[in-house]
Amino acid sequence: MAHLTDAIIRKLPTPEKGNRITYDDIVGGLGIRITAAGARSFILNYTVRGSGKGRRYTIGSFPDWACTQAREEARHLKRLIDGGGDPLGVIEDQRGAPDMAELVERFETEHLPRLRPATAAGIRAQIRNHVLPHLGKNTKVADVRFEDVDRLHRKLSKDYPYGANRVLALCSKMFTLAIRWKMRPDNPCKGVERNDEHSRQRYLTAAEVTALTKALAEFPDQDMADIFRMLLLTGARKSEVLTMKWDDVDIGIGKWVKPPMATKANRKHEVPLSGPARQLLDKRLANKRSDHVFPSNRGHGPIGNIHRAWVRLTKDAGIDGVRVHDLRHTFASSIASGGGSLPLIGALLGHSNPTTTHRYAHLFDDAQREAVERVGAALTGKPPAEVVPLKRR
Question: How far apart (Å, rounded) are the C-alpha atoms in residues 76 and 65?
Answer without folding.
Answer: 15
